[in-house]
Design a protein that fits this description.
Layout: H1 4-14, E1 19-20, E2 30-31, H2 33-43, H3 55-60, E3 66-69, E4 79-82, E5 94-100, E6 103-108, E7 113-117, E8 129-134
Parallel strand pairs: 1-2
Antiparallel strand pairs: 3-8, 4-5, 4-8, 5-6, 6-7
Amino acid sequence: MSSIENMIAWMQARKGRVTYSMTSRMGPRSYDCSSSVFFAMIAGGFLSAGSMGNTETLFGMSGTKLKEISRGEVQRGDIFISGTPGGSAGSDGHTGIFLSNGSFIHCSYTHNGIAVDTNDAYMSTRLPHHFYRIVGSG
């Protein structure tokens, strides 16, 4: 059975213990924003083992694995993707997982690893934000 709590636990277990890297992003010592979200979704049972992608891949899941929601609807386990679909690769995108409507956990360059933030600006001040609920997450 899929579990938001298992997904979040994967991120929490690595908070402050891993570094950020876009080149060495497959763990176990470093991840980037999207690889950490993919590994967390696998740990939660929402993606199959071996699944991997980036913010573009996540945008591509809209309508199948992800359902777009408004910022006001955000709850624990929802995902944000910052950037523009079709143009969010590399540093032009960012992603993370909400712990509540007011906080989220993400792997960021700013923190050089996985950290919790409470200010939406940490999603990226220069990019548009999109919010998603994982289909089947309850």
